[in-house]
Amino acid sequence: MAGQEASVAGRRLRITPAGSGEFRMENAQLAVTVVDSKLRLSGRAGEFDRINLASADRSSFVSVNQTRYRGTIAISVRGGSISVVNELPLEAYLMGVVSREMGRRPEAERAALEAQAIVSRTYALKNRGRFRNEGYDLRAGVSDQAYGGVDAETATGNAAVRSTSGLVITHAGQLISAFFHSTCGGSTAGPEEAFRTVRTTPYLTPVSDRRSGGGYYCDVSPRFRWEVRWDGLQLRDILRRTLPAVLGIEASSVDRLRAVLVHRRGRSGRVAELRVVVGGGEIPVYAPDVRRVFQTPAGGSLGSTVITLESEDGAGDLMGLTVFGSGWGHGVGMCQWGSIGRAREGQDARSIVTTYFPGGRVEAWY
Fold first, then answer.
1. Using an 8 Å Cβ cutoff, are 90 and 161 in contact?
2. Which of 57, 142, 321, 343 could form a disulfide with 109 if both were Cys (CB 3.0 to 4.6 A apart)?
3. N-to-C CA span, the chain
């Protein structure tokens, strides 16, 4: 996290500024601010390059901006802003991830939480050091894994982390690229259907989420089916913003909007290429860009690329477009709501994980 000021609190804080001795504060409520590229700590003289904070009491935690964290909080200045990094053991980190990713789940769905713990542990280990030059390993948002510290933890989620301690997914003796998403909508995707730089592997391949008795395991998701509608002028104006931002195409090329067509689908049935028909011809939009180019009227990304289109035409122009969608997210790897549906039907974590990563092995890494 970054900003110009951070609020820090703790029942018994152990504070270690760089270049200065450690000191402790009881029931502390502190403000950390940036002044001339240095840190200042309210109620304490001096300016610092870095401040480390930890709880001196094992039963309490350090709070930053009203969110509690395990381990140590390292605060420094980067690019003129405060950089706050939570340094803690991997298993403690996972406690703040599993229930943040999966929500509060009952004990009957614990296998889904265990599957998420195994996948998240694999992801964290595989990506350790990715942002080393910036002073941390992983980001706390959905660009890596959602992490919410102590306040995101649940008893069931923590039990899932403990019961799978050290377990990861491997292929050919190496950690896999452990992707996951909210809702596949009926089938997971191959990486080429979602990403530009992730290569196809045996364990990242479309997997059907269909139940043997009918329906789909992820149809319990609130985002299993959805739709978005634009009128023609509204969509044209959105494309005039998004096509330059995402594809570098001149806004003026979207002089009029004649049609939006599905040109090609991928292995899982997802849209692999759309064509935007304008006055001067056709603009191809490929799968990795579809969700960002076709922003919703509210400004968000399209839910997924498992879509069908319904057009309203008039006098050679597109008067309206409705997208009927299935699922939520990029679709590669483990389907989180599918894992919940599978857990409800008695599948265990190992079965869930190896279903979504064909050829993957669950093994103890430590």
1. no
2. 343
3. 30
Closest among 69, 27, 77 to 51, alpha carbons compared: 77
Are 239 and 256 spatial neighbours (Cβ–Cβ below 8 Å)?
no
pLDDT of residue 318 exceeding 90, the answer is yes
CB 336 within 8 A of CB 112: yes
| Nearest to 349, CA basis, from 100, 109, 105 | 109
Cα 69 → chain centroid: 20
Residue 86 pLDDT > 60: yes
Mean pLDDT of all residues belonging to the chain: 93
Query: What CA–CA distance (Å, rounded) separates 102 from 105?
Result: 7
Cβ atoms of residues 138 and 131 within 8 Å: yes
By residue count, the chain amounts to 366
pLDDT of res. 153: 97
Q: Is the pTM of this model over 0.70?
A: yes
Q: Which of 209, 309, 200, 227 is nearest to 265 (CA)?
A: 309
Q: Which residue has the tokens 């992730």?
A: 198
Q: What is the pLDDT of residues 277-309, one digit of tens each?
A: 999 999 999 999 999 999 999 999 999 999 999
Tell me: pLDDT of 1 over 60: no
Name the pairing type of β-strands 2-3 and 5-17: unpaired
- Of 330, 351, 359, which Cα lies nearest the Cα of 217? 351
CA angle 265–268–272, rounded 5-degree value: 30
Burial of 109 (0-12, 13-18, 19+ CB in 10 A): buried
pLDDT at 21 over 80: no
Alpha carbon distances (Å) from 200 to 207, 239, 332, 333? 14, 30, 11, 12
Q: How many CB atoms lie within 10 A of CB 307?
A: 25
| Dihedrals phi, psi of 323, to nearest 5 degrees | -105, 125
* Cα(68)–Cα(113) distance, integer angstroms: 22
C-alpha radius of gyration, the chain, whole number: 24
CA atoms of 287 and 270, how far apart (whole Å):
8
Q: Examine the pLDDT at 2 and tell me if it is beyond 60.
A: no
CA-CA distance, 47 to 100, in Å (whole number)?
A: 36
